[in-house]
Specification:
heterotrimer; A: alpha/beta; 3-stranded parallel β-sheet; flat; B: alpha/beta; 6-stranded mixed β-sheet; 3-stranded antiparallel β-sheet; 12 helices; 34% helix; Heterodisulfide reductase subunit A (chain C); oxidoreductase (chain C)
């Protein structure tokens, strides 16, 4: 079976999350492996969230803001 | 050493007699050589027990947090760096602290001595310039001091206290920059090799948290590892991954705050190479933020400052 | 019997570009109802078309879209799109406005913006938003983030509108029943108290200048076309390519002053913004390519005069390697090698002719006034200048010749975004000043039922999964997601909805809340960025705290982007719902915070800016404390004699002083400084050097700046060498030193644009030209020389530069590494400068040397205030605004504003405008009865806090401080923006953010 990575993304509400919305509006197709968590600012990303996600089985974590 | 000891005693007595401080924290002789033990002197008589030797390894910054009384501390280079960091973090009131600065050219690692002597017990020690004579029941060995120093002391570039109210002895010559060769060597290994090494090291961890207790900077009321709402990582020592993450986060939490005093590693009963992680962090903080812990009173917290010139290797560029 | 009609507490804003949006928001937040009339189907204006913005390189859309949403959703901004103002009658305080609204053919109330109609529409039309570089449909949304988030039909292109029996495909797919091809134009009458005109600008029509080859050569583009090419939402998705053949360009040239500084076509003015946008486009273009891109800018004078612009120019030149070629371009022709490249023929400064080939040539088009406004201006009796811009009467900043009618943005003259925003806030303040008696009479506020207490209740979550017509349902198996949701812990009800955002669904959600006793609501539909506030409104109407709501974005971030993988998209939708449900279970009600508010203002600095602010604040009905360090009011303007446009500055200043003195609402403290400050927005307590303590709600910093004391060019050694301010005094006094002077030399950039002060002082070029003309006026036979680096007579000042040249003022350019030399000589001073055309030294025996000395920050004062009010300074010691582009008079710290020279060099007119802008912004705070915040702020668990102060040092809003007594961090909820930087930097886990706690986020991670 093909490797299907599970990716957790922490996206800033004001830019990257908006960018992800925009990708939708533009119907830009990308693999459905990403699970987005919306945060108020990239400053909200506690390094522990990343560790928690990885420890919980995420194959990768994307933080963007 | 004797000269320094005498000077420290004098300074401490004077401070106590003149009621400039309520307490002097320093070292007293332990029951065995190289077993300097933290000592609290509240009277001039008690101050007579103060000493200075190659066994005064503890970081005394540990005893200075959130005190209401006026305290003097006998502090070597690494102690002072931690003190400076703690002052900046509102943990020590500089106005209530008197720093008796002692230039330090390294403390002797008992583990190294034991290894060298193959378990024979040292009963006395004499320092002669660059060498030291270790004497036991029926032996006497002369060894280069540098070979016996704690690894943290071998790497130390700040033996001289950077801040003090009174200096004991003379300042030592400045040392060159740390090249972090050990860190670079480890980084050069493959990911699999590094992973294997860490797994091996941290499988030893018993989660006694001695490292945390020994560290002057680990003072959270509740450590993240003890937190249950949310539970960040597993609490059992059986899981090496959790053990590694505990250390990774502990070290990360000391980013820009760790003076690389080596207290954590010295405290570890399992002999885990903890400084591999702390030094990696110290090296990163220096390269990424151009910051070193506690080397002056002015620098702001490394992780709370931003300049346009900070390298940002984590960024995915367009 | 006739009585004077009462004033109307509403304002008409014409044009919904960034100026219109800013003015509307400021007014609506200050207690006035706003009618925002926009001719296109969406608000936004030109800014959404731009890729990045100088000098911060922020994404234009990213910084604008929060304002679009705020404006669009504002209860007191009535946005009327597709509409034009046809007439305005009446008098200040009471205008009757006739607005003609064209049929949109789509009901924006019903349209959900899903886009199915456009997919079906068979008619392709050039997309104006993308400058015609690609196609859109006849039913269209102007751009992705447009507000209203609704489609519109292009009546001239739609088949069905032309022939009612034709097509109709859009009708078939629209499940919201929003399209109506029979919709008619409407005419509305509205009553307002004042009017703000901000219709923006049009780009210069370059077809009239054939020598640039536009339209003939496919690889000659306009600057706006190039913006769209760079934009990730543009026709090529941000990939830099030639539109003609898709080739990746290796060399790109920009040609400046296309349609600017050109008298032959009656465009004698400088368009002010093109130098900066060309540099920006060059720098950004280089960022876009994975190969080294050659960029060259062909220019006459580099006019990077704005705040931080010079540094941007320096970086582009020195670090990014953008080439700058000082030249005159004659012609752009096709290269003769069949490559499609363009060849530029130009003349260098020394007169030599050069040729160079480029893959692309970008024409930096100038700005023209909005053409449709010219007609309206005629009807209203509005005076326009010779270029048809609505230039404000001198020293008013934003007024027009018609009382009650104000102007902002590029309609009053070419200007960039920060100045436009500044003018918008200024116009808001100016238009509100006369309506103070009607404040709050037209604004609306909504009433809600009392909130249910859910504390201690068992979690009862309701999940609503939206089909969004076919947008979600055609990809994601919605019924399956609903069934899955029912199995999740805490979920007691789950259902599917065709359109979760429709009116009837809102009623159904309220019913479900009632019927099933829901205390948490999850909606799985589109983006919370656009729809969360709407659903939260539903919760409030149902008596639930709006923060007991969570959204799963299964459209924008799921069905739309995984259209070909329905199963995986369904699995993802389930995950997203599970995450939302997990978080929802941990949500708690968040109460807004309300604090008392002091409605007085403190203005620090009694120069023109400070006095202008004070007078305007007083007119709005607020009490003002005006503090001035010197013994007299007036500041540095006391030393000005001639206004840039010929105004009598001394008369103006003394009139201002008289007004301030006569105003009972203004309490003046001269000879006083600030010695201590406590508190925060709404509750400041400021101590003066006199010991007096002032309680105030807002602070405006207008501390001015100083003139640089030169150490060069024999200043201080020869009495013939003087600064421009000193020379101005002599000129006004007609001192024999200047009236008798045969040779007068002006030296520019003295203390500016050098290593120590790498900024342009902005006003000195114009001032020198003004004084040069004065010298000529006094003594036409005098020889006047201006030694300059770039002449920066931006905007309409360019006219004055031309006049000076016509009158024989000699302009000699020098380079920074070969500055003029001033030596004492017999009977005067000898100035030696190397002529830029001839390349040989020229010696001038000057009787008077005027030094254009830099404007320097009042560093000591500013540093002190910076600490007191927790507001930052830039490297040069000027105050640093919250955002260079969109918050030019605000600080990150709420309730503190700035204006005038304290912000950076600018002329009197601009200072006045900025002073009003600061009032405009301050009034948004002062107009509130109390300070209320949403409450999504940080909070501290005192037991865990070690008081280390890490949170304090990372907080960008200065909202958290370690209490010196308790030794724990304390959050000021009035200031906290809820960004969470504190929470993520807290090692002890002692600080957290309401609505986004560690537990809630970890619950989402654990749900995976």
């Amino acid at each position: 079976m093909k490797f299907e990575p599970k990716i957790v993304a922490f996206l800033c509400n004001w830019c990257s999350y908006a960018g992800a919305d925009l990708a939708g509006i533009g119907r830009i197709q990308y693999p459905p492996n990403i699970r987005v968590i919306r945060i108020p600012c990239s400053g909200r990303i506690n390094p522990l969230f990343i560790i928690k996600a990885l420890r919980h089985g995420a194959d990768a974590v994307l933080t963007s803001g | 050493m004797q000269k320094l000891t005498a000077q420290i005693k004098d300074a401490a007595k004077k401070l106590l007699e003149e009621k400039k401080v309520d307490l002097v924290i320093g070292f007293a002789e332990g029951s065995l050589p190289l077993r300097g033990t933290p000592f609290f002197a509240r009277t001039s008589e008690e101050a007579d027990k103060l000493t200075w030797s190659r066994g005064c390894e503890n970081n005394l910054a540990n005893y200075l947090r959130k005190r209401e009384d006026k305290v003097a501390v006998v502090a070597k280079g690494c102690d002072v760096r931690s003190i400076v960091a703690l002052i900046k973090e509102n943990q020590i009131n500089r106005d209530n602290l008197y720093i008796i600065g002692v230039p330090c050219n390294g403390m002797i690692d008992r583990k190294k001595v034991n290894a060298m002597l193959g378990g024979r017990e040292v009963l006395a020690m004499e320092e002669n310039g660059d060498t030291v004579v270790l004497k036991g029941k029926d032996f006497s060995e002369t060894v280069n001091i540098t070979d016996l120093l704690h690894s943290s002391c071998q790497d130390c570039r700040y033996g001289n206290p950077v801040v003090y109210d009174e200096l004991m002895g003379e300042l030592l010559p400045e040392k060159g920059e740390d090249d972090f060769a050990d860190v670079k060597e480890f980084a050069a290994k493959s990911a699999a090799e590094r992973r294997a090494y860490l797994a091996k090291e941290f499988s030893k961890c018993i989660r006694c948290y001695a490292c945390r207790n020994a560290c002057p900077m680990c003072y959270c009321e509740e450590c993240f590892v003890d937190c249950s709402q949310p539970e960040w990582i597993g609490k059992s020592a059986a899981n090496t991954e959790d053990n590694i993450l505990f250390q990774v986060v502990r070290v990360f939490h000391s980013a820009g705050r760790c003076a690389d005093c080596g207290a954590c590693e010295r405290a570890c009963p399992m002999g885990i190479n903890l400084r591999l992680l702390t030094r990696k962090m110290v090296n990163d903080v220096k390269e990424l933020f151009n910051a070193e812990t506690g080397v002056n009173m002015d620098d702001k917290a490394a992780l709370a400052t931003f300049t346009a010139n900070d390298p940002e290797p984590f960024l995915v560029k367009e | 019997m006739s009585t004077k009609p009462d004033k109307v507490g509403a304002v008409l804003v014409v044009g919904a570009g960034i100026a219109g949006i800013q003015a509307s928001l400021d007014l609506a937040e200050s207690g006035y109802y706003v009618y925002l009339v926009e001719k296109s189907p969406a608000i936004g204006g030109t800014m959404p078309m731009l890729d990045k913005t100088f000098p911060t390189n922020d994404c234009s859309m990213c910084i604008l879209s929060p304002k679009l949403v705020d404006c669009g959703r504002h209860l007191n901004v009535n946005t009327i799109t597709n509409a034009e103002v046809v007439d305005i009658q009446g008098e200040p305080g009471n205008f009757k406005v006739t607005v003609k609204q064209k049929a949109r053919f789509v009901d924006p109330e019903k349209c959900t913006g899903c886009g199915s109609c456009a997919e079906e529409c068979p008619v392709k039309v050039d997309d104006e938003f993308n400058q015609g570089l690609n196609k859109r449909k006849a039913i269209y949304k102007q751009y992705a983030q447009a507000y209203p988030n609704a489609y519109a039909i292009d009546a001239s292109k739609c088949l069905k509108i032309k022939k009612p029996k034709a097509c109709g495909k859009c009708l078939e797919v629209c499940q919201a029943d929003a399209i109506n091809h029979q919709m008619q134009d409407e005419t509305k009458e509205i009553a307002v108290g004042s009017v703000i005109l901000c219709p923006g600008f049009e780009k210069f029509d370059v077809s009239q200048l054939a020598y640039y080859g536009y339209g003939k050569l496919p690889n000659v583009l306009t600057s706006l076309e190039f913006e769209r090419i760079l934009s990730a939402s543009g026709p090529f998705g941000g990939h830099l390519q030639r539109p003609s053949d898709g080739k990746e360009p290796q060399k790109i040239a920009w040609i400046q002053c296309v349609g600017s500084r050109n008298c032959r076509i009656e465009h004698g003015y400088c368009s002010s913004v093109c130098c900066m946008y060309a540099i920006k486009e060059a720098v950004i273009a280089k960022e876009h390519t994975h190969y080294p891109l050659d960029t060259a800018i062909f220019f006459m004078d580099m006019r990077t005069y704005g705040k931080d612009f010079e540094k941007y120019y320096d970086r582009a030149r020195l670090e990014n390697g953008v080439r700058f070629i000082r030249s005159r371009v004659f012609e752009v022709m096709e290269a003769d090698d069949g490559s499609g490249n363009c060849r530029i023929r130009y003349s260098n400064e020394d007169g030599s002719i050069g040729y160079e080939d480029f893959d692309l040539v970008v024409l930096s088009l100038g700005l023209e006034p909005a053409s449709e406004m010219v007609e309206l201006a005629g009807k209203l009796g509005l005076e326009l200048n010779k270029f048809n811009f609505c230039e404000p009467p001198a020293l008013t900043g934003v007024a027009t010749n018609k009382p009650g009618v104000f102007v902002a943005g590029a309609f009053s003259g070419p200007r960039d975004i920060p100045e436009t925003v500044m003018q918008a806030s200024a116009a808001a303040a100016a238009s509100a000043a006369d309506l103070a008696s009607a404040r709050g009479t037209m604004t609306k506020a909504k009433e809600y039922p009392a909130e249910k207490d859910v504390a201690g209740e068992i979690i009862r979550t309701g999940v609503f999964v939206c089909h969004c017509g076919i947008n979600i349902g055609s990809v994601v198996n919605v019924p399956e997601v609903v069934e899955f949701a029912k199995t999740l812990p805490g979920v007691v009800f789950a259902d599917e909805k065709m359109y979760a955002c429709s009116q009837d669904t809102s009623a159904q959600i309220k019913e479900a809340i009632e019927q099933y006793g829901l205390n948490r609501v999850v909606v799985a539909s589109c983006s919370p960025r656009t729809h969360e506030p709407m659903f939260q409104e539903t919760l409030k109407e149902a008596g639930l705290n709006p923060n007991l709501f969570e959204m799963a974005n299964i459209r924008d971030q799921c069905s739309w982007v995984h259209m070909n993988e329905p199963e995986k998209a369904t699995a993802k939708a389930k995950d997203l719902v599970k995450m939302a449900v997990s978080k929802a279970a941990l949500l708690e009600p968040i109460d807004g915070v309300t604090l008392d508010m002091n409605h007085d203002a403190l203005v620090i600095g009694g120069g023109v800016s400070g006095m202008t602010s004070a007078i305007n604040l007083s007119k709005q009905g607020y009490k003002v404390y005006l503090v001035e360090k010197a013994e007299t009011l007036g500041g540095i303007a006391n030393r000005l004699r001639f206004g840039m446009r010929g105004e009598d500055v001394p008369a103006f200043v003394s009139d201002l002083v008289a007004q301030v003195n006569a105003d009972a609402n203004i309490k003046i403290f001269t000879g006083a400084e600030i010695t201590d400050v406590h508190g925060f927005v709404g509750n400041f307590e400021t101590t003066l050097s006199s010991g007096e303590v002032i309680q105030h709600g807002v602070t405006i910093i207008s501390t001015g700046a100083e003139e640089y004391k030169p150490t060069e060019y024999l200043y201080g050694q020869s009495d013939r060498v003087m600064t421009l301010l000193e020379l101005e005094g002599l000129l006004a006094a007609k001192d024999s030193k200047v009236t008798g002077a045969k040779n007068v030399v002006f030296i520019q950039c003295v203390g500016s644009r050098d290593e120590e002060r790498p900024y342009c002082s902005r006003i000195c070029c114009t001032k020198s030209v003004k004084q040069a003309l004065k010298v000529k006026e006094i003594n036409p036979d005098a020889n006047v020389f201006v030694l300059y680096r770039d002449i920066r007579t931006y905007g309409f000042f360019e006219e004055m530069y031309r006049e000076a040249r016509n009158k024989g003022v000699i302009f000699i350019r020098y380079t920074v590494d070969n500055k003029p030399v001033v030596e004492s000589g017999a009977g005067g001073v000898k100035v030696t400068v190397t002529d830029h055309v001839l390349g040989v030294p020229v010696e001038i025996n000057a009787d008077v040397v005027g030094l254009a000395a830099a404007i320097v920050a009042a560093k000591d004062t500013n540093t002190k205030l910076s600490k007191f009010y927790k507001v930052p300074l830039n490297q040069e010691g000027f105050f640093l605004e919250a955002h260079m582009k969109l918050r030019p008079v605000d600080f990150g710290t709420d309730g503190v504003f700035m204006c005038g020279l304290a912000h950076g060099p600018k002329n009197l007119e601009e200072n006045i405008s900025q002073a009003k802008a600061a009032v405009g912004r301050a009034c948004t705070v002062l107009a509130k009865d109390s300070i209320s915040v949403e409450g999504k702020s940080a909070f501290v668990n005192k037991k865990k806090c070690a008081g280390c102060g890490e949170c304090e040092s990372v907080c960008p809003a200065k909202a958290v401080q370690v209490d010196p007594e308790e030794k724990v961090a304390v959050v000021n909820e009035a200031l906290c923006k809820g960004c969470g930087a504190c929470a993520s930097s807290c090692r002890c886990g002692a600080i957290n953010v309401k609505g986004c706690t560690n537990q809630q986020l970890v619950a989402m991670i654990n749900a995976l």
